[in-house]
Design a protein that fits this description.
alpha+beta, 3 helices, Nucleotide-bd_a/b_plait_sf, RRM domain-containing protein
Length: 148
């Protein structure tokens, strides 16, 4: 009987040729398999994400993280890049570990100069969730008037 193992716990046990059955995982996980606290924070959505607009095209993830680290623990700082040209789009996101740190960063950094450009900082808005099979209604320019 062959067993598929993941981090020391049997996940599936093979019975016969092509049938698998799910086995119970070990209730006591291996300490080395535990996730880092920063990963737990981002997976549980405990972190507080800020939108940073108007940033310079010379700003990198590291400089953004360094600028906001004075207000608290920065979990992630990301400058959004254009996929076609691989150049920054002029905005980014910063994740903080607590609400107080995020509010302090908003109060202190909104309207300040970072790398030669005035930035504005606000809470990031959630992406809209579309259910399977639905899409947003395409809007576009209005149709021209037809004259009879």
């Amino acid at each position: 009987m062959a067993a598929l193992r993941f981090r020391g716990a049997s996940l599936f046990s093979r019975r016969g040729t092509n049938s698998f059955s799910l086995l119970r995982l070990n209730p006591k996980p291996d300490p080395s398999s535990l996730l880092l606290p920063s990963l737990l924070i981002s997976r549980r959505c405990i972190s507080h994400k800020l939108f940073i607009g108007g940033i310079s095209f010379y700003t990198t993830d590291d400089t953004l993280s360094e600028a906001f680290s004075q207000f608290g623990q920065v979990i992630e700082a990301k400058v959004v890049m254009d996929q076609a040209t691989n150049k920054p789009k002029g905005f980014g996101f910063v994740k903080f570990a607590s609400e107080e740190e995020a509010q302090k960063a908003i109060a202190e950094m909104n309207g300040k100069v970072l790398n030669g450009r005035v930035i504005y900082v606000e809470k990031a808005k959630m992406k809209p969730v579309y259910h399977e099979g639905t899409r947003p209604i395409p809007r576009g320019p209005p149709r021209p008037w037809e004259v009879d």
